[in-house]
Design brief:
Blueprint lengths: L11 H11 L7 H17 L7 H15 L1 H11 L5 H19 L1
Helix pairs in contact: 1-2, 1-4, 2-3, 3-4
GO biological process, one term: negative regulation of DNA-templated transcription
Function: Negatively regulates transcription of bacterial ribonucleotide reductase nrd genes and operons by binding to NrdR-boxes.
Keywords: ATP-binding, DNA-binding, Nucleotide-binding, Oxidoreductase, Repressor, Transcription, Transcription regulation, Zinc
Length: about 100
């Protein structure tokens, strides 16, 4: 289920394409991106629901991508969250940095 209410069939390839675009020119192997996509697909299918929101799928991708490559994460988040301005983008960066520092304490 898309944000605008339209329905589309689940597409593993669309998820992989979005992840690959976000990781373009980053030091992340295709194998790693494929495994990330596998994890997201497994989570989605394990829900056993007929309809899943694209927002939830995007959230799953972001959770996985954050641990793989921070730049790819921010790129994906910028499309997924559709930042309206620089302040919204900076807020996401600040949240990411705070979360990272808490994990290192």
């Amino acid at each position: 289920m898309k944000k605008d209410g339209t329905r589309q069939e689940f597409s593993r390839q669309k998820i992989l394409n979005g992840i690959v675009r976000s990781a373009e020119k980053r030091p992340v192997s295709m194998e790693r991106l494929t495994k990330l996509t596998d994890k997201v697909e497994k989570k989605v299918r394990s829900l056993g629901e007929n309809e899943i929101s694209s927002q939830l799928i995007g959230k799953y991708v972001m959770n996985e991508l954050k641990d793989v490559d921070e730049v790819a994460y921010i790129r994906f988040a910028s499309v997924y969250r559709q930042f309206k301005d620089v302040d919204a983008f900076m807020s996401e960066l600040e949240t990411m940095v705070k979360t990272e520092h808490k994990g290192n304490d």
